Amino acid sequence: MKSYAPEPFVNFADETVRTQFDHELQHVLQKLDRTYPLVIGGREIYTDAQCVSYNPANLSQVIGRVSQATRAHVDEAFQNAAETFKTWSRKSAEQRALYLFKAAAIIRRRKHEFSSWLLLEAGKTRPEADADTAECIDFLEYYGRQILTLAERGKETLVPYAGEDNQLHYIPLGVGVVIPPWNFPLAIMAGMTAASIVAGNTVLLKPASQTPVIAYKFLEVLKEAGLPDGVVNFVPGDVLEIGDYLVDHKMTRFISFTGSQRIGMRIYERASKVHDGQIWLKRVIAEMGGKDAIIVDADADLDAAAQAIVASAFNFSGQKCSACSRAIVHEAVYDDVLARVIERTKNLSVGNPGDPASIVGPVIDQKAYDKIQSYIELGKTEGRLVCGGTQTATPGYFVNPTIFADVAPNARISREEVFGPFLAFTKASSFTEAIEFANQTEFGLTGSVFTRNRDHIEEARATFHVGNLYFNRKSTGALVGVHPFGGFNMSGTDSKAGGPDYLMLFTQPKLSSEVL
Ligand code: NAP
């Protein structure tokens, strides 16, 4: 088997690639507005109730209509998953990994098709969609290899003891519930699902309501790869009907959640209650929000810093948990960096990602749009509006990239996650103060530091309290296996997705000791 390496990104500067992509996009456009079922134990179930998924850049375009699970469907899915667990959990790590490798190969062959769905359903530009698809392939390839390593680790790590054969087996937990967000609707959804099942668990997958069609497309891939029925049960549904129900269910053994702090806390709290008939403590893997800062030191490469701030803050309209939403800049270079960032931001073209010239696409839905608008209004009372803050003329949920200057480190717009193209600039009188400001939030996900000062690099390494700390580069763009991802404090349980310890979270070690 080849060793793992991240999937290369597509080069959209190449005209042949652009033509191939456009061809696929046309093909996908022919498949819009279809109806999709729930999938329980391999059985497709169509319901009258449907979730309608729209293109956030063009609200007249329906991406698909997806059936909605009731509590009775959830019960049926739990029964199916529990039954399937009996056989799936007994398959070898090699057998399970093979399904992931097959799924990766299928998606790699149909890369532009998946990226086209991402462009249409999540509003991603071509490069952003391609990165999402590449990361999905990476998770499949990486976790497929990691489970083999974990199986070996159990055999090798124990201290030899005369007269005994001692083994540690990392066995699966049981039936899990996978609850992904909409912002990496392919990569994160597939990664959370793949990690769960390759470790030997079976799952109920409840996709995000904004992006259920992409999730169904992944289900199709798993089916094509030959994954046995009932290993992944697809239960999209209204959270008011099935959200708490999934979490509270006595058959839920673990919950793998990625999303907002508010929902993560709710799930964490509810999962701690032991229900009648439940014979385990539920495990919760919860990856939540961020309020990520880029610090610029007095001696930094200012152009590189400005470029990184703009890319981290505004690509995919700032809708990444790792997006830069605060620039904390040394007073000696504050005005200079601010001017460079404003200049670059004004050159970003906002528009439908269907147009290759668009750099900033829409935000995901009306709720996100309204939330960002309310933070823009708040920003006007907490800072100086220096860019954006205006409505766009484009139909769809478009927000002009917005920058506020001279924002206090304890302002609400310095501390709360906005999750849109929204950036606050704060001035610091020293490097140490910049780190203090950066740490003044309850989150701790990503952070970047631009400096040429070796002492400052070491100071930040020791004191900048984030799960993913980057030097002289942007705060987004973690690569599977290269930059294991997860945050501290209210950013979650720091599971480090795409890292060597991640699969452990989906297993429990069992010791067996045999007298020889
Ligand atoms: P969200 O509103 O918290 O939703 C996340 C998932 O939870 C969705 O599938 C949602 O379903 C579901 N959900 C909502 N209420 C629920 C309930 N009561 N019980 C069970 N499930 C429930 O987050 P989002 O808007 O999709 O995603 C954006 C957030 O994710 C941001 O805060 C971002 O920072 C964070 N994020 C974090 C990471 C990370 O690795 N740390 C990565 C990506 C995103 P519905 O869609 O049906 O409501």
TrEMBL record:
Its EC number is 1.2.1.88. The active site is at residue 287. GO terms for biological process: L-proline catabolic process to L-glutamate. One of its GO terms (molecular function) is proline dehydrogenase activity. Belongs to the aldehyde dehydrogenase family. RocA subfamily. The lineage of its organism: Bacteria, Bacillati, Bacillota, Bacilli, Bacillales. One of its GO terms (cellular component) is cytoplasmic side of plasma membrane. This is L-glutamate gamma-semialdehyde dehydrogenase. PROSITE patterns: ALDEHYDE_DEHYDR_CYS, ALDEHYDE_DEHYDR_GLU. NCBIfam families: D1pyr5carbox2, PRK03137.1. Pfam families: Aldedh. CDD domains: ALDH_PutA-P5CDH-RocA (cd07124). It catalyses: L-glutamate 5-semialdehyde + NAD(+) + H2O = L-glutamate + NADH + 2 H(+). Residues 52-510 form the Aldehyde dehydrogenase domain. InterPro entries: Ald_DH/histidinol_DH, Ald_DH_C, Ald_DH_CS_CYS, Ald_DH_CS_GLU, Ald_DH_N, Aldehyde_DH_dom, Proline_metab_enzyme, RocA. PANTHER family: DELTA-1-PYRROLINE-5-CARBOXYLATE DEHYDROGENASE 1, ISOFORM A-RELATED, DELTA-1-PYRROLINE-5-CARBOXYLATE DEHYDROGENASE 2, ISOFORM A-RELATED. The keyword NAD applies. Keywords: NAD, Oxidoreductase.
